[in-house]
C-alpha cells in the first residue's frame, strides 16, 4: 500500500479529511473489507451493526460495550461507493479500479463546527492507524482492532495539528487592546482529569501564584484573579513588574468532541510589539502541554520559540 498523508480542506463550510491509498487488491475484495461489518471489526474503531441498504440505521459499539453511537447509510453502490453518517460526521469510501489493484479514497467530513475542526489532528492520526490495520487484513496478516492510544500518539497528532494549521494562534482587536488567542483539542480525557494534571491537584485561589503548567517564562505571571476549578483560571501578566493584561484559560468538554482549551492573553496597544513573542511562546507551550496531558511529557525543543517568533513577526508585518 502506498501511504500518503491525510489532507484537510473546507467543503461547503465544513472541514473534510481526505485519505488515499493504492492497494494491490481487487475492488471487490476491498469493497467487502470496508463494508461488511464482519470484516470491519478487524480494522474499524467500533463494531458496526446495520443492513446494507440506503437509509438503514447504523449502530456503533466501542470496545467494552459502554459507548454506543448511531448513524445512517447515505450511499451504497457496490463495489464503488459507501457513505454513512456517524453522529455529526459523514464517512465516505470510494473504491476505484487502478491497474491490477485499486485506489481507496476515504473522506471524513467533521461535524461540530469550529470545535469539530479542532479534532482533525487526532482524527487523521487515528485513521492512519486504522488504515494500516485494514491493509494487514487485506494481506491476510494478523491484525488487532486499533489501540486507542498507540506508542508516540502525541507526536503523531502534533504533526498533523501543525500541518493543518491548528496549532497556530491568532490576534484580534479588543477595544484599545489586542487579544492573542489559541484553541486546542485535548482529546477525550475528562476535563477534571486534565485540570488535575495541569494544576498538580492543588487548586489555585485568587491572589496565589498560578500553576507552573499554565504559565510560560516569556509572559511573566502575576497573581491569580479568577479560579473556577476545573474550567477557568485567569491571572495578571506583568511587564516591567506591573500588570499589563490578563491570561485566561478556559476548559470545556463536549460529549461528541471531547475536551478542549481556549487560551487568551490581552496585550495593550502600547505593547503590540510583544504579540509575536506571546504567540510563539504560547504555541510552543501548548505543544508540550498537550503531550503532558496525554501522558507523554517532554521538554520544549531548543530554539522552538525563536523559530515560531520569526514566523509570527512575518505574519504580523
Short descriptors:
317 residues; alpha+beta; Alpha-D-Glucose-1,6-Bisphosphate, Chain A, domain 4; 2 domains; nine-stranded antiparallel β-sheet; 8 helices; elongated
Polypeptide structure, described:
The protein is of the alpha+beta class and 317 residues long. It has 2 domains: 149 residues, 2-Layer Sandwich (Alpha-D-Glucose-1,6-Bisphosphate, Chain A, domain 4); 147 residues, START domain (Alpha-D-Glucose-1,6-Bisphosphate, Chain A, domain 4). It is 28% helix and 36% strand. It has 8 helices and 15 strands. Helix 7 packs across helix 8. It starts with a strand and ends with a helix.
Task: Give a brief rundown of this model.
Helices cover 28% and strands 36% of the residues.
Secondary structure layout plus pairing:
Layout: E1 2-3, E2 7-11, E3 14-23, H1 27-35, H2 37-40, E4 47-50, E5 57-61, E6 68-77, E7 81-86, E8 89-98, E9 101-109, H3 113-118, H4 120-138, H5 153-163, E10 170-174, E11 177-185, H6 191-199, E12 221-228, E13 232-239, E14 242-254, E15 258-268, H7 275-293, H8 304-316
Antiparallel strand pairs: 1-3, 2-3, 3-9, 4-5, 5-6, 6-7, 7-8, 8-9, 10-11, 11-15, 12-13, 13-14, 14-15
Helix pairs in contact: 4-5, 7-8
Amino acid at each position: 500500500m502506498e501511504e500518503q498523508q491525510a489532507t484537510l480542506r473546507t467543503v461547503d463550510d465544513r472541514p473534510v479529511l481526505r485519505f488515499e491509498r493504492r492497494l494491490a487488491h481487487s475492488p471487490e475484495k476491498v469493497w467487502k473489507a470496508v463494508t461488511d461489518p464482519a470484516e470491519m471489526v478487524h480494522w474499524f474503531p467500533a463494531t458496526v451493526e446495520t443492513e446494507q441498504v440506503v437509509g438503514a440505521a447504523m449502530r456503533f459499539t466501542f470496545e467494552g460495550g459502554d459507548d454506543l453511537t448511531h448513524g445512517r447509510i447515505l450511499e451504497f453502490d457496490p463495489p464503488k461507493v459507501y457513505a454513512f453518517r456517524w453522529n455529526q460526521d459523514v464517512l465516505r469510501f470510494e473504491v476505484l479500479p487502478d491497474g491490477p489493484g485499486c485506489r481507496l479514497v476515504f473522506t471524513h467530513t467533521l461535524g461540530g463546527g469550529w470545535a469539530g475542526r479542532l479534532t482533525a489532528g487526532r482524527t487523521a492520526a487515528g485513521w492512519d492507524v486504522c488504515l494500516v490495520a485494514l491493509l494487514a487484513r487485506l494481506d491476510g496478516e494478523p491484525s488487532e482492532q486499533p489501540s486507542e492510544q498507540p506508542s508516540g500518539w502525541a507526536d503523531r497528532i502534533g504533526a498533523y495539528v501543525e500541518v493543518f494549521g491548528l496549532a497556530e494562534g491568532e490576534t484580534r482587536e479588543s477595544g484599545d487592546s489586542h487579544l492573542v488567542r489559541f484553541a486546542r483539542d485535548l482529546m477525550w480525557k475528562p476535563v477534571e482529569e486534565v485540570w488535575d494534571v495541569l494544576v498538580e491537584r492543588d487548586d489555585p485561589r485568587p491572589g496565589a501564584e498560578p500553576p507552573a503548567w499554565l504559565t510560560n517564562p516569556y509572559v511573566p505571571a502575576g497573581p491569580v484573579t479568577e479560579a473556577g476549578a476545573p474550567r477557568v483560571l485567569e491571572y495578571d501578566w506583568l511587564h516591567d513588574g506591573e500588570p499589563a493584561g490578563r491570561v485566561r484559560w478556559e476548559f470545556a468538554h463536549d460529549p461528541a468532541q471531547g475536551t478542549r482549551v481556549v487560551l487568551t492573553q490581552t496585550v495593550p496597544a502600547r505593547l503590540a510589539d510583544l504579540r509575536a513573542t506571546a504567540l510563539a511562546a504560547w504555541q510552543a507551550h501548548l505543544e508540550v502541554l498537550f503531550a503532558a496531558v496525554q501522558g507523554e511529557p517532554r521538554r520544549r525543543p531548543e530554539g522552538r520559540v525563536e523559530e515560531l517568533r520569526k514566523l509570527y513577526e512575518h505574519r504580523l508585518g
